[in-house]
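Researcher: Re-running this chain for the archive, since the previous output was lost when a drive failed. Same request as before.
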Amino acid sequence: MKRILLCGCCGKMGRVITRLVGERDDCLIVAGVDLQEDRETGAFPVYSSVDHVEETVDVIIDFSHPSLLSSLLAYAKEHRVPIVLCTTGYTAEQVEELKEASQQTAVFYSRNMSIGINLLIELSKKAAQVLGSDFDIEIVEEHHNQKIDAPSGTALMIADAIRDSLDSPVSYMYDRHSQRKKREKNEIGIHSIRGGTIVGEHEVIFAGNNEVIRLSHSAQSKEVFASGAVNAALFLAEKPAGLYDMSAMV
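Model: Regenerated structure tokens:
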């Protein structure tokens, strides 16, 4: 039975994870961290800071806010506790910070915890390698109207994977309305749509001469991300120090 510390436990994703873990017999949430300190969770104590946590834990799942990264990594390093980072919106400096922390404890970092999305990424990389520069690449992502960041971390995750699989350098084009010129061959277009209650839609378009290939993934519920986070936590719980991601589980 793995003991989980859930950060961001009072948020939407935190509540979904709490429900899913409650239905399993291989793990248990023993404490939560959230600025709201919502005591209605009932099943476990909730602290306003990770520094106040008294329980012994085997792994941390974080679905909170980028501003808490440093304190969470400090706790993970001090207690040698593996940590699964599911929060998006980290700066380049913060990514370097979590990479450094992985030298002392196991760190699982993915901007999307869905197995399906990570399979989409692998397929997109393969397509880019096969199609090469003969096809223009565009990424379209759709999310609910409450999402703050744009483009999504997942869209950037897809773009980065494609970029790294290509032989020639590429640049990201986020907005074309201010430029009156033809599309450059070395561009990857990234487009964001926000509306309603869309959970998450991602499509990768490979447009060539007289043919178009589309790869897409549709998340119907936040449960796909919650389930991926819990599975990642159980995967990471006994791993040595190092940086892990969903490719280790695909």
